[in-house]
Design the sequence.
């Protein structure tokens, strides 16, 4: 099925489109200030109704440091359920300004996010992985947006 066919299949008679009932996945901080804006961004961008949200404190540093193996195995398990159980074909790893779990400057945090996006991509090579940064104004910046 081509993208045009999918769009046509999801078209209302008035010309608008309805959301495909599908899943995307975010690996996000537990900080509630950033979850809603990320989920809304991903839902709109990916045209999905459901977001599987995996949360932990400072996920990009946890994944990048590769020291908390039990936690990392748990994240992998949850991602596997989302990708293989819910057929999510999109994962974002998210960081944000003022993270209490990562007491380092924004550029260091962004490096963790980019590194962890590469690690997640290696776990799920057929899934598109994005690295997202949430600013102080709760705007989303893409640090990495294409499958590599």
Sequence:
């Amino acid at each position: 099925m081509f993208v045009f066919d999918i769009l046509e299949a999801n078209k209302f008679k008035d010309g608008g489109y309805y959301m495909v009932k599908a899943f995307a996945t975010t690996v996000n901080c537990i900080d509630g200030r950033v979850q809603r804006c990320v989920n809304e961004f991903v839902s709109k961008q990916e045209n999905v109704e459901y977001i599987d949200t995996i949360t932990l404190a400072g996920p990009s540093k946890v994944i990048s440091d590769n020291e908390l193996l039990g936690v990392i195995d748990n994240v992998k398990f949850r991602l596997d359920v989302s990708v293989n159980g819910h057929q999510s074909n999109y994962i974002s790893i998210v960081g944000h300004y003022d993270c209490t779990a990562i007491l380092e400057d924004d550029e260091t945090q962004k490096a963790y996010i980019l590194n962890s996006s590469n690690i997640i991509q290696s776990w799920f090579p057929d899934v598109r992985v994005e690295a997202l940064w949430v600013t102080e104004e709760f705007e989303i910046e893409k640090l990495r947006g294409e499958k590599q």
Notes: Strands lie at 20-28, 48-55, 90-96, 128-134, 140-144. The helical segments are 3-9, 32-46, 59-65, 69-85, 106-123. DSSP finds five helices and five strands in the chain.
